[in-house]
């Protein structure tokens, strides 16, 4: 038991170190890019400022200290959960992220689930029917989806379903004019979310499908499948219980990894649909060289990725009994020693 | 085999999607006709709601952090209106203004005006704003009180409604430029603002529209200020969604989700708006110049003859025809903008490659190693870059064309397209040989700014002697009438265009699409386009500020 705890402890220290390095990179990256927030404020007229005025302006946005001083302030901020004030929006970074994150989660969360479920089912179906017409057409279809850029699918949806047919709104996450009822609001938000959600789903379903298909093909080639088939196991059970369960391992890893990027949002799709998510916020902040805002978003993404890794690490043994037994045996050996 | 093909049901589906995509833009037109035929006859009554899509977010209209004049002017007023870009701005928050001597002005402010929060507007607000601009943090307006011109003293006289301005040197155009440029801020709010750049409350002004709501990157909501001293606004509320993507913006306009957009419709898209009854395409002069800037601190552009040769070698008309499909005017009359009343009408910047070649030859720039490009008189390779922002694809193409044109006189250029902020950084750090960019009304139509541009490093810098121009600037500062100043300005402009540091390539035109059945009373105010407060004020007010009906693309 103690051994397990210490191995968890080791893992935590490991993750802590990764986190610290990531934090430093998050601090350094925005500052390595040419330009600073003043350019955003002043544009071409920046040349009209004297040195004193420039210094004054930097002071007013907290960027007058040395890099080292700024770094210390940044680290202190993280420890005390004070992530600073956005230069562009002049509001606390966490307030803005708090406003935007739900929108991103609303889009990217369901889209990723949908894309995984559809991808896995179609991939399994395709693998089972390998070489037949339905496999080939699915494969071609999915490869095409994989190759088509997401923004293009989004633009297509907009041109046809929103502009031409008028079924969906063309921009935003909700209408500027509300009827005031909760139900009306929910409906409004749902209608606004459908197209971007469908776009992200379509843009990502291809990779899930391809991964499942190849993983399934490998499983289906194994001796135990032939054995099960010979035993007369029902087709459905064979696909889902015997083959897919084993094929799911790489898919699960892939899925948990993408979970980490969930909070990073979908920059392109959010831009095409003028959706107020984290991805667009990040893009805007990069353009404005809004250092505190970028640091805040990077922090969230870092936490997301590290969290997803930790989650994968901890849950992998649950779905792969081999990882479980390996650890147990190892642990038992050590106890004996 | 046949069976296999039959089962490829996914393929036709994909083909269908592609086909529909191809047809979509054509069929979208018919729909707008049907949906937008309501709402006519709204000429005298107040229109209830207008939805105007805007392409960028400028924050809660804090003039220190976001600067889009037409937008901030919905909320704020100036002493004179509409802008320094017209011949004679008229008194606005001011009731009258009078020049007592070369350096003294008195302004009477209007009575009975209230700020949007209910407080009274007074002469003290004017004094406060001008001092705040002069002594505090810099913004794009501040040089109009702190340097060109320079106002030493601002006092409110005993009657409480007269403000006296005392300039450091002659200031004949204080009313027509400074008064028409500086938005007046409420003292009771801004006196407590220590750091104007971090001020994030909604703007409170005296203007015809009250900013009710602002959601970053999403929208603005304005309500009419029905007590407005220049007349009740013609629209009760204006909602402005922020739509950054160009395609999304025009889609929303076609779908009828917005009634107008302040993003210019590119030439290739105009046809898709022309064939509907509801849509109108207004063509306006944005008072801007797309320029080819030269680094006058670096070789070879620190030599005035080289700058002249480059200007002579540029075929501006062919740039307009090729890159803009003719939408725009070639910069044949140079800098500043020809539509500005402050610009010398007799300027010209000819295209003459023979003369350009002659100049370079005589300076000793010759192709000694026969690689097709000239070397410096010292025999060194001469290779220059043109930096340009990658977010402006049109300018990238302009830069490519310039590269080709200048090759003809033996000059070698590399075009470097870079991310917008990287570009801005390179530009502000003087880390370039040449650049292509746009400069707006304040830069190219405001005569005081022309002087400022020669002091603050954009067109020249105080730190480098420029005897011919320096003498003219001294004369200009000494001149005490607008006429004298104008005459000297004209000479300066001629001198400038003879050895330009930023070469005017073309004067862009903007085309705005709007749904005329929802609102059709837009007027053009030079440099402001068609969406600005004057478009939403009563007829007589519009005439008074010399706003005119826009031209339409037929």
UniProtKB/TrEMBL annotation, chain A:
Transmembrane segments annotated in the record for this chain: 12-29, 103-124, 136-169, 189-211, 247-273, 293-319
GO cellular component, one term: plasma membrane
Keyword terms: Membrane, Transmembrane, Transmembrane helix, Transport
Keyword rRNA-binding among record annotations: no
Membrane topology: Multi-pass membrane protein
InterPro entries on file: MetI-like, MetI-like_sf
Coiled-coil regions listed: none
Domain ABC transmembrane type-1: 101-312
Intracellular or extracellular location(s): Cell membrane; Membrane
GO aspect biological process, one term: transmembrane transport
Family matches, as PANTHER family: OLIGOPEPTIDE TRANSPORT SYSTEM PERMEASE PROTEIN
Family membership: Belongs to the binding-protein-dependent transport system permease family.
Name of the protein: Peptide/nickel transport system permease protein
From TrEMBL, chain B:
Alphabetically ordered keywords of this record: Signal
Keyword Signal: yes
A Pfam family hit: SBP_bac_5
Annotated compartments: Cell membrane
SUPFAM superfamilies: Periplasmic binding protein-like II
Solute-binding protein family domain sequence ranges: 88-454
Protein name: Peptide/nickel transport system substrate-binding protein
GO molecular function, one term: peptide transmembrane transporter activity
Membrane topology of the entry: Lipid-anchor
Source organism (scientific name): Psychrobacillus psychrotolerans
GO biological process: peptide transport
GO cellular component, one term: ATP-binding cassette (ABC) transporter complex
Keyword Signal among record annotations: yes
Signal peptide start and end residues: 1-28
Family in the record: Belongs to the bacterial solute-binding protein 5 family.
